[in-house]
Design a protein that fits this description.
InterPro entries: CCT_domain (IPR010402), CONSTANS-like_Bbox1 (IPR049808), Znf_B-box (IPR000315)
Domain CCT: 355-397
Main location: nucleus
Distance between the termini: 69 Å
Keywords: Metal-binding, Nucleus, Repeat, Zinc, Zinc-finger
Order of helices and strands: EEHHEEEHHEHHEHEEHHHHHHHHEEH
Pfam families: CCT (PF06203)
Length: 412
DNA sequence: CGGGCTTCTATTGCCACAGCGCTAA
DNA sequence: ATTTAGCGCTGTGGCAATAGAAGCC
């Protein structure tokens, strides 16, 4: 039974917002979550196409359906034949991603992008981070859970793991959650570990460092007219045939190097220490399809290293569980390789010159980045500065006060 | 090792009201 | 089509209350 959008009650619900516990159609998803900065951070994912009530965590490439853990378990865990289905993790996104980015996120098995560039209208929005699994899950009979390290053409001499998060077989919880890797923080070092039963210290980097160069800056993403774009989402073959998605987004392209990674680790540690909370990202977008299948134009490692990520408010406004559910925790723990990447980037666009330019732009933006309070209305500030208070609260003009900002005594 | 206590730090809510943005006349 | 009036909402800063973490016994 197809679920109607909880908001408009007219369109078919396609995404599930964990924060709102609501099933939304894409236009409403955008409307609701562009309302303010808080709703902007709500993590959403596809809706399970079986039960239409739970967030999907799995994309079954064979059946071409998105499934929640429960439905996946029922569907794939019970039958030997179905167990062999090739599946990918579906992760969450937040903010207001563009049509192209949503396409990239959910491009499992798509041959063509859903839109043309002209459909992509830029408005403010946080690009989110792809939570990409780091390892490849195979059925035990195939590879004994070995991690597929193919395709790791290390530009920066990093030891890394495959970006593919496709697996076959009955998915374990860790696999389904697409959180195959996390860090164990020890004194002075960060050691990655597999969350699955099989531990393998594959080493994010030789010096246990991560890439600092995640852009905190916003990346504008958005699109309008979801209907046009995703109206037939489930019939992917009808998507438009313009697959030239390059250039749709200008992305910061930070370099990956061990020094920066080390600094970044320290930043993360610092944030963890200061927040006392699980470090989480406010904007998380995943794109398992984009690199999970070789048919989908797997980007090069170099390309991965050049992707900008948008982090802010790392203190976690949503519950840790929310982020964990959608694998965001592993975004930070797996940040060795920013996974958010256009599906079919031409490798030539990551030439050394472009890369240097991108790095330069990134550095400049980072340098100029300010987290200080921003006054939007100076007139209101002036008024507030002049206003008299009682215990910090504004009082009516003429009322007795205990704080006069204009008082010389207070100002000294 | 866990509980209770203290200390420290960070976050949140409150207040009045000018002015913004929108709608209706 | 333009102007005006009215209304609801936003944002501004300092303080107190609250929450949470850390340290100690």
């Amino acid at each position: 039974m197809v679920s109607p959008c909880d908001y408009c009650r007219r369109e078919r619900a396609m995404v599930y917002c964990r924060s709102d516990a609501a099933c939304l159609c894409l236009p409403c998803d955008r409307n609701v979550h562009s309302a303010n900065a808080l709703t902007h951070r709500h993590s959403r994912t596809l809706l399970c196409e079986r039960c239409y009530s739970q967030p999907a965590t799995i994309w079954c490439a064979e059946e071409k359906v998105s499934l929640c853990q429960h439905c996946d378990w029922i569907g794939h865990g019970s039958s030997v034949s179905l167990m062999g289905h090739k599946r990918q993790g579906i992760s969450c996104y937040s903010g207001c991603p563009s049509a192209a980015e949503l396409y990239r996120i959910w491009s499992f098995g798509l041959d063509h992008p859903p839109i043309q560039e002209s459909n992509c209208k830029q408005v403010s929005g946080l690009m989110s981070i792809n939570e990409n699994s780091v390892s490849t899950y195979w059925s035990p009979s195939e590879a004994n859970n070995t991690i597929d390290l193919t395709g790791l053409d290390m530009v920066h001499d990093l030891e890394d793991v495959s970006k593919f998060n496709t697996w076959i077989g009955s998915s374990s919880a860790s696999a389904v959650n697409s959180v195959p890797c996390s860090f164990v923080q020890t004194a002075g070092s960060v050691t990655p570990k597999l969350c699955s039963n099989e531990k393998k210290d594959f080493g994010i980097c030789k010096d246990n460092s991560l890439n600092e160069d995640f852009s905190v800056d916003d990346v504008d993403l958005s699109f309008e007219n979801y209907e046009e774009i995703f109206g037939d989402f489930y019939n992917m073959s009808k998507f438009l045939e313009d697959d030239d998605m390059d250039g749709l987004f200008e992305m910061d392209m930070p370099a990956t190097n061990s020094t920066c990674q080390s600094e970044f680790i320290q930043e993360v540690k610092s944030m963890q220490a200061s927040s006392g909370n699980v470090v989480s990202a406010d904007s998380v977008m995943s794109n398992p399809g984009m690199n999970a299948d070789s048919n989908l134009c797997i980007p090069s490692r170099q390309a991965h290293s050049s992707v900008s990520l948008s982090f802010s408010s790392l203190t976690g406004e949503s519950s840790a569980g929310d982020y964990q559910d959608c694998g965001i925790s592993s975004v930070l723990t797996n940040m060795v390789e920013p996974p958010w990447l256009p599906a079919c980037l031409d490798s030539s666009s990551f030439s050394p010159a472009n890369r240097d330019s991108a790095v330069k732009r990134y550095k400049e933006k980072k340098k100029n980045r300010k987290f200080e309070k921003k006054i939007r209305y100076t007139s209101r500030k002036v008024r507030a500065d002049m206003r008299k208070r009682v215990k910090g609260r504004f009082v009516k003009a003429g009322d007795a006060y205990d704080y006069d900002p204009l008082s010389q005594a207070r100002n000294c």
